[in-house]
Amino acid sequence: MAGESRPLGRVPAEGLFVAGALAQYVGASLAVLLFAVVPASGVAWLRVLAAAGALAAWRRPWETRWSGRALGLAAGFGIVLAAMNLTFYLAIDRLPLGTAVAIEFCGPIAVATLGSRTRRDAAALGLAVLGVLLLADVHLAGAPLGVGLALAAGGFWALYIVLGHRLAMEPGLRPRDGLAAGMGIGALAFAPFLVASAGPAFAAPWRLGACLLVGLLSSVVPYGLDQLAMTRLPRARFALLLSILPATAAIVGAVVLGQLPGPAELAGIGLVVAASAMRSHTPQP
User: Fold this and answer.
1) 279 in Cβ contact with 122 (< 8 Å)
2) By CB count within 10 A, which of 49, 159, 204, 259 is most buried?
3) pLDDT confidence band for 3 (50 / 70 / 90)
4) How is the chain split into domains, by residue range?
5) 122 pLDDT exceeds 60?
């Protein structure tokens, strides 16, 4: 591993983060293109399944001694993670990628606000809500379900942050074992409901390969690069970099999918980016 990571060690930490963000949203754009032949729910499930397989092979969570509490946390975390992916993919099937990501961002901003209760974070949440209202006003007439699904994805993202933090603090667990186990549990939990919608992916090898590639690009690659970046960046700096994600999604959506945002959408995405950059980034107990 040390030999493999040495070339990446020469890349600035900010560059690793940006590369991870690009991989994540290129994967999402590829998913949108696949929706023409595989339903969004099926692509979402295969994404979770592919990521679960890759992480399980890497971390081997079955070698960990799990307490009942830790296993319960991992199960809840994984189900929330799978639900977040599902609602997000259903949202980007109806909304432009940048718009859906900006609306979804209300989740982590709300968690930061509730965790600190400072005026700065309250103002950041107000800016984010204003941006989301602006985006919703553009799309409510044509895609009200898409707006609702993006908001639901934001809610699951907030739960993901809370449960992920508790899982990471659980004594006796190796780092990232909770993610590997949770991803696998989430894939199994949603299989009875989503495996049928994934059926068209098995009709052609290229479809299945593309769906699995979505999982690697959207989950495994950005996760691995983020882990490297976090070890070399102060927490506040890393949290600040997260604010560029809605803008990155909008740029990738425009380039790959031709989803050019209008003035109102640009303003809404800009408000969410400003809100994320504005929120405080000091660690909370």
Assistant:
1) no
2) 49
3) very low
4) 15-278
5) yes
